[in-house]
């Protein structure tokens, strides 16, 4: 979700934002070290006008990997080969029926289930991979402006799914509702995955802090870490200080996260990089021009561990981290949207070397 502001104005707003008193949990309160340079291994052909946003990966039965991107302006999903960047197919089209989309934004994959949040259909649609067969949808009548979507397997055959709802006052883009209405910034749903049956969905409530210091004002990206009972929600409100707010998986605000002052622009794509069952890193895109800065944080403490930029990649919205080996990327890859029109691929081996990260991430 890009706020159209000149870069200088965005930086001034971020620098002048009112900062909340530091929490003893919110350890990441200072800017990360100077950014390293990591060259992109490939950039997909540019597709001007499609307005690419969010990314997810899916390993195919024949050993390849698909990279799935939402294309908001044409109301489609694009499927790329994750090793070559070749565009393989387009899925869907404008509409409100099964398999159709209106401004698809967030995408999330669990097993063979694909979830797609649609801002203007005000729902999350469920599709089965590899055929993209519609399995139903949820959130209609509850979601007003859904953006990001993330989930995890809370029990065998069961998912908990989180959806950010960035509705604005009078549906204007930049008029934030009163604080007392911001307790509905994140919706939680339970999905039961039964074999040979359509998923069954039930709402589990909403949450969001409503204090002046830590309310979620403009939201899109979110991701979690069940091993640490952590959900990070990006707040993109430049005028108040962009941040990553930390919640427990049951929706309780901890007071922690990555505080205002670390991001120079909007925190966009967000991904967990688990290197061992307990250690690893978080990567978040700082949506800057001429080059996006990818900020790396410790998985456990959220302390800054460095940052990097590519040679080209800018104005990044979504990212996807594929930590499993592929034919081209034996240690996995980070994929990032470039300027709404292409996707860049970074080799995780290059990231580890450039930032001096834990070599266990390459095993």
From TrEMBL:
Coiled coil: none
InterPro entries recorded: 6-blade_b-propeller_TolB-like, B-propeller_Phytase
Record has Signal as a keyword: yes
Keyword Transmembrane: no
Key words of the record: Signal
Domain spans labelled BPP: 28-355
Listed GO MF terms: inositol hexakisphosphate 3-phosphatase activity
Signal peptide: 1-25
Protein name listed in UniProt: Phytase
């Amino acid at each position: 979700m890009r706020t159209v502001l000149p870069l200088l104005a965005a930086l001034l707003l971020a620098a002048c934002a009112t900062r909340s008193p530091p929490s003893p949990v919110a350890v990441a309160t200072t800017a990360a070290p100077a950014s390293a340079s990591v060259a992109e291994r490939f950039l997909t052909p540019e597709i001007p006008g499609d307005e690419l946003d969010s990314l997810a990966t899916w390993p195919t039965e024949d050993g390849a990997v698909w990279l799935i991107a939402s294309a908001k302006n044409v109301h489609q999903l694009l499927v790329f080969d994750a090793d070559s960047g070749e565009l393989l197919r387009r899925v869907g089209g404008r509409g409100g029926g099964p398999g159709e989309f209106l401004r698809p934004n967030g995408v999330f994959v669990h097993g063979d289930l694909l979830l797609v949040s649609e801002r203007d259909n005000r729902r999350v649609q469920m599709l089965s991979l590899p055929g993209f067969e519609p399995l139903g949808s949820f959130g209609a009548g509850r979601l007003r402006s859904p953006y990001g979507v993330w989930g995890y397997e809370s029990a065998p055959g069961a998912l908990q799914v989180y959806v950010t709802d960035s509705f604005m006052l009078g549906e204007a883009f930049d008029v934030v509702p009163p604080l007392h209405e911001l307790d509905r910034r994140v919706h939680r749903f339970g999905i039961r995955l039964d074999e040979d049956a359509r998923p069954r969905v039930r709402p589990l409530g909403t949450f969001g802090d409503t204090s002046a210091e830590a309310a979620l004002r403009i939201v899109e990206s979110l991701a979690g870490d069940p091993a640490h009972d952590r959900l990070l929600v990006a707040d993109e409100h430049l005028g108040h200080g962009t941040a990553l707010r930390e919640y427990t998986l049951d929706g309780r605000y901890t007071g922690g996260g990555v505080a205002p002052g670390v991001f120079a622009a909007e925190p966009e794509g967000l991904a967990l990089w688990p290197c061992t069952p307990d250690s690893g890193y978080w990567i978040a895109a700082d949506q800057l021009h001429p080059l996006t800065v990818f900020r790396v944080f410790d998985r456990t403490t959220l302390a800054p561990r460095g940052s990097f930029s590519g040679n080209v990649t800018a104005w990044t919205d979504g990212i996807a981290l594929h930590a499993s080996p592929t034919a081209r990327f034996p240690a996995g890859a980070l994929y990032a949207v470039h300027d709404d029109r292409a996707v860049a691929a970074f080799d995780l081996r290059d990231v580890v070397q450039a930032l001096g990260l834990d070599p266990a991430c390459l095993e």
